[in-house]
Design goal:
alpha+beta; 5 helices; 4-stranded antiparallel beta sheet; globular; 7-stranded mixed beta sheet; Coagulation Factor XIII, Chain A, domain 1; binds copper (II) ion
């Protein structure tokens, strides 16, 4: 009985978790529906930044296999990659649409020849956006309702995979705890440009658990962030990837005690100090709540967090770090 209840909530949590998937393409603003969108074999669950996960097949296209059809584009077209929290989307009333606000981090877009199926040295990075003026790529992505805009590079004609990727760093201060999301679209480039992919990156070895941009504390007041992986490939890149910063949102508070701290390596002892001096400790949840509304895996507390703190029955609010408490 108890086991059955636990499993039932685990299943609900899996669906309700505040993650995201890639679901639709638009060309010059016109929806192409789900044509060419590869699904995922693991719903909206994250790939973690463990060595095993970073080398797994999930890194290629989130386990999504080839689908019939593709979206036709030409060099210079605006291709939009639309993500949502749930599939089908639970709509604007969902506070975690298109992804939970806690999931701050960079957004990166890659292209590979379709015939590679994303394996080996297949991928060229064409766009990336990290932290700019205090705004994370994920903040902008949320204000853009889950849309990632890409200008189609001057690629040779043919079939390609376009892969957008979100790296959520809300628990990135601990090794193996960053959450990676990706999704692939099948596109057919109809213009015949100059660029061909000869020696790209292997997406299954491009990130390491302790890369400076993977093991990164977003709560330390850093003013810059090193996006992991290679630079945007010259010639493929479509200019500054970062969309204009969104108006100031409710960014997580930046403790003044760390303002001068340049190092991005998390220091647990420093964090402990911050907690003691912070006035936001009241945001911490009541321990042991068991009849609340926060779904399993959802955020339930932490400095700067103002949402519900009581977890649904069967899960309890547990501290992941000072800024992120989660129902588990
Ligand atoms: Cu998540």
């Amino acid at each position: 009985m108890k086991t059955a209840t636990f499993l039932a909530f685990a299943a609900i949590g899996k669906l309700a978790a505040a993650h995201a998937t890639f679901q639709e393409m638009l060309v010059n603003g016109k929806s192409q529906g789900s044509t060419g969108v590869r699904g995922t074999s693991d719903q909206n669950n994250p790939i973690l930044s463990t060595a095993a996960d970073l080398a797994s097949d999930m890194m290629i296209c989130k386990g999504g296999s080839k689908v019939a059809g593709s979206v036709s584009v030409a060099s210079g077209d605006k291709l939009t990659l639309q993500w949502h929290h749930n599939n089908p989307s639970s709509g604007a009333g969902d506070a975690d649409e298109p992804i939970a606000a806690s999931h701050r981090g960079p957004i990166i877009v890659w292209v590979a020849k379709a015939e590679t199926e994303g394996k080996g040295n297949a991928w060229v990075k064409i766009q990336q956006s990290g932290l700019s003026g205090g705004t994370w790529a994920v903040d902008t992505f949320r204000s853009n309702a889950g849309k990632i805009d890409v200008t189609v590079p001057d690629l040779a004609a043919g079939d390609y995979l376009i892969r957008s990727e979100i790296i959520a760093l809300h628990e990135g201060d601990r090794a193996g705890k960053a959450q990676l999301y990706n999704g692939c679209g099948q596109i057919k480039v109809t213009s015949n440009g100059k660029k061909t992919i000869t020696n790209g990156a292997n997406i299954q070895s491009v990130y390491k658990t302790d890369d400076a941009g993977i093991l990164f504390n977003i709560y330390g007041g850093a003013s810059s962030y090193p996006i992991p992986g290679p630079a945007v490939d010259a010639g493929f890149g479509t200019g500054s990837a970062a969309p204009a910063p969104a108006p100031v949102t409710s960014a997580a508070p930046k403790p003044t005690t760390t303002k001068a701290a340049a190092p991005v390596v998390p220091k647990p002892t420093t964090l402990a100090t911050i907690v003691k001096t912070s006035t936001a400790a009241a945001a911490y949840p009541t321990k042991g709540s068991s009849t609340g509304s926060v779904a399993r895996w959802g955020q339930c507390g932490g400095i700067g967090y103002t949402g519900a703190t009581a977890c649904v029955a069967g899960s309890t609010c547990q501290k992941q770090n000072d800024w992120y408490f989660q129902c588990l």
